[in-house]
Amino acid sequence: MEIKEPVSESKHRTKINFERLSPYLFIAPFYILFFLFGLFPIIFSGVLAFSKWDGIGNIQFVGFDNIARLLQDTDFVLAVKNTLIIWVVGTFPMLFVALIVAFLINLKFIKHKEFLKTVFFLPNITSVVAVTILFGLIFSNLDGLANGLLGLLGLPPIDWLKSPFWVRIVIASINIWQYLGYNMIIYLTGIIKIPNDYYEAAVIDGASSAQIFWNITIPQLKPIILFTVMMSTIGGLQVFSEAQVLVPSGATAEGGAMTIVYYLYNTAFGRNQFGYGSTIAWALVIIILIFSLLNWYLTTYRIKGE
Question: Are residues 99 and 37 in the same domain?
Answer without folding.
Answer: no
